[in-house]
Amino acid sequence: MTDLGRYDDWLDFLRGLPAQVPQVRVVVVSGSAVTGGYDEHSDLDVQVWCDAPAPATYDATMALVHERFDVDHVWRVGADRWPTAAQGFVHLQPDAADLSRPTRLVDLYVDALPERLTIDVRRHGTPLVLHDPDGLLVLEHDAEEPMAEQRARAVEQAAARRETGAWLVQRAIARGDLAEATWFHLRFAVEPLVMLLRVRHCPARHDFGLRYLRTDLPPGTAERVEALLPGPDLAARARAAFAWQDEVLAELGVAPVSGRSAG
Questions:
Q1: Helical H segments across 74-143, by residue range
Q2: Could you give the C-alpha distances from 258 to 55, 239, 255, in angstroms and in order?
Q3: What global pTM score does this model have?
Q4: Residue 90 counted as domain residue
Q5: Which domain holds residue 135?
Q6: Residue 238: how many CB atoms within 10 A of its CB?
Q7: For residue 259, is it within any domain?
């Protein structure tokens, strides 16, 4: 069991939240607390589902948060980020980047209760359920067919884009445009490489980006990826990243588009 002791006050608050905000139907802890990698600088990821508009439920919850806790500030994520939800990062101490003491930060996500509430434990771990008296939350895998189609499109695009991406990176380096080269390197060399590695080794989390590399990929892979991050020898790192892309594409049975026409 993950030790969530420094958030005990929040866990108590969340267990009692439905009594004060009756539209709250399900409350869980998710994130690194249940997937692995949780440490003294992890935030507490909280998901709430309600049978009322999420923004109103979020506002009611945050009013109680400000009454009970010493809140330094809140970053409320823009309303256009989620179509039915509201999200805020509640900072319970100043200067979250000061890691000389344990972090106290809560990622609060409130969403409207769907017709059927499911969580795929392969992608999100087994949540710590704080409130679900009606058994609304179902743990099951997401439908495989749409996920497989999404992976196939991502791999196809990586293969088709490989040569164009390599050209963009090397051209920016040759022109001395370091900022542009760095951006292109991350976008076209490193990020697609990590996606391909995820398709190869943890397909259910193929779209998780550069996070959780040490827990999701084979030992030593994260360090090998990190060695390709922007540095003084960016041209060589880019060539190595694209060469590794070629290796993984070959393992996946896909050839990069090079020297042949493509639509």
A1: 121-124
A2: 49, 15, 8
A3: 0.84
A4: yes
A5: 5-139
A6: 25
A7: no
